[in-house]
Amino acid sequence: MTMIERAEPAEAGEILTVQRAAYVTEAQLYGDPFIPPLVESAEQVRRAVESGTVLVARDGGRIVGAVRGQTSETTCRVGRLVVAPDVQGRGIGGALLAALHEEVAEALAFDLFTGHLSEGNLRLYRRHGYRETRRERMSDHLTLVHMRRLL
């Protein structure tokens, strides 16, 4: 049974381990081993836990997923939605996203972005009410798809 709760700063290292494992396939998909989630430090993750809303999914004592939300006025920026590769496809990502929507109840909108080749991510976000707002070409191999969910 997976439980979702707020992350603690001391869990930054474990969150980073799951994050790196989850983003390896994204790095391969876009041919870039230096994408920000892979080069972020445990200290940066700890600061994110302290300054924003970071939720973790636990299976027993193990962290198997995480998501971040940073609220500014009435908008929550969603970031780093990650699920450990060995438990992907079990609804953990969707459960984390839904829990973030509940946790940041004061937000009127949720914004996020993902890469244009990340079809699984795009499907997940659309299922949870996100709609594409714009595309931003970052390089020859990467276009960011910006999405928003209005309440």
Describe the structure.
The two termini are 29 Å apart. The model has no long low-confidence stretch (mean pLDDT 95). The chain has helices at 12-30, 36-39, 42-51, 92-103, 119-127, and strands at residues 2-6, 53-59, 62-72, 75-83, 109-115, 131-139, 142-150. The chain is built from 5 helices and 7 strands, in the order βαααβββαβαββ. The protein has a 7-stranded mixed beta sheet with strand order 1-2-3-4-5-7-6, with helices on both faces. By secondary structure, it is of the alpha+beta class. It is globular and about 40 Å long.
Salient structural properties:
GCN5 family acetyltransferase, 7 strands, alpha+beta, acyltransferase, Acyl_CoA_acyltransferase, 7-stranded mixed β-sheet, 151 residues
Secondary-structure map with pairings?
Elements: E1 2-6, H1 12-30, H2 36-39, H3 42-51, E2 53-59, E3 62-72, E4 75-83, H4 92-103, E5 109-115, H5 119-127, E6 131-139, E7 142-150
Parallel strand pairs: 4-5
Antiparallel strand pairs: 1-2, 2-3, 3-4, 5-7, 6-7
Helix pairs in contact: 1-3
Strand content: 35-45%
Instruction: Tally the helices.
Output: 5
The overall average pLDDT, rounded, is: 95
Order of helices and strands: EHHHEEEHEHEE
Helical content, roughly? 25-40%
Distance between the termini: 29 Å
Q: How would you write the strand order of the largest sheet?
A: 1-2-3-4-5-7-6
